[in-house]
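Crash report, auto-generated. Payload:
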Amino acid sequence: MSITSAATLATLDRSGPRRITDLAVIEGVTQPAMTVLVRVMEESGLVERRGDASDKRVTLVCLTKAGTSYVQTRHQTGVDAFARLIDELTDDEVEALVAALPALAHLAELESQDQEGSKR
Amino acid sequence: MSITSAATLATLDRSGPRRITDLAVIEGVTQPAMTVLVRVMEESGLVERRGDASDKRVTLVCLTKAGTSYVQTRHQTGVDAFARLIDELTDDEVEALVAALPALAHLAELESQDQEGSKR
DNA sequence: GAGAGATACATAAAGCATTCATATAAATAT
DNA sequence: ATATTTATATGAATGCTTTATGTATCTCTC
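Recovered output after restart:
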C-alpha cells in the first residue's frame, strides 16, 4: 500500500467518487500511474470502477465497503496515536493547542490552496 | 533527489557525520539502499565518505560544502514559504500560534521518540 | 592464539511505484 | 464533416527500494 494509494483512498472517502484524471491531479501523479493504482486497488477490493452515463469516456472510482472500512480504520489508528501523544502533554499545553486550533486549521487551508495553485 | 536523500542530508546537517548503518536506521531504509544513496550523493558532490581510524569496516558520511549549502538553501526555502503563509493569518491567529509553540515542540519531540521506539 | 559469531558495508538481482510515450475512443469546437 | 481536445488504457523506461549474498573486520569465548 503506497503513500499515493492511501492518500487516494482518503480522498475518495472525503469527497466521494472521482474521475481518474481528477484523482491524478489531486494526488500529484500522472494519469497512467493513477490508472494502474486504481486497477490494483480494484483487484484488492478496495475500490470499484463505474462508468458515467453522461460521458462514455469517464471512469468513476468509488470506495467499496471494504475500502471505506480500511480508510476509517487507518484514520482511527492515527487519531488514537495522536490522542496518546496529547495525553502526555500538560493541561496548559493542551489548552494552548486548543486555542490555536482555528489558526492551525487556517494554515492548513492556506497550504492546501498553495499546493493547488502550484499544480496549475 | 528523493525524499530519503533530502532527509539524509538534513540529518547530516543536524547531527554531523554518521555511519551508513546509522543513517539507514534513522531514515527507515535498509542498509544497501543507504549505501547506494550515499554513493549517488557522493558522485553529486553533496557528501563525502571517510574511513574511521578506530574501525576499518566503517564509512563515515559527511556533508561537503555544496551539501551544506544545498540543505540550508532548501531549509530557507521552506522557512520563506511558511512565513508567507503566516503573513496571511490575523494577528490573533499568530498570537495563538506563538502561544502554542512550546506545546507543538513538545508534541514533535514525543512523536520523534515514538518513531524511534517503533523502529527498535 | 584460534575459531566462532557478530557487525559494517558493498554488490547484484528483483520488486514496486512512477513517468514518458503512445494509442484508442469519445466529446467539443469550428 | 473535420479538426482539436479530453479521458483513459497500455507498454516501455526509470528511479528508488528491498532481498539475497559476499567480503572484511571486530569481538567474544575457549
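Post-recovery validation: The longest strand of chain A covers residues 47-51.
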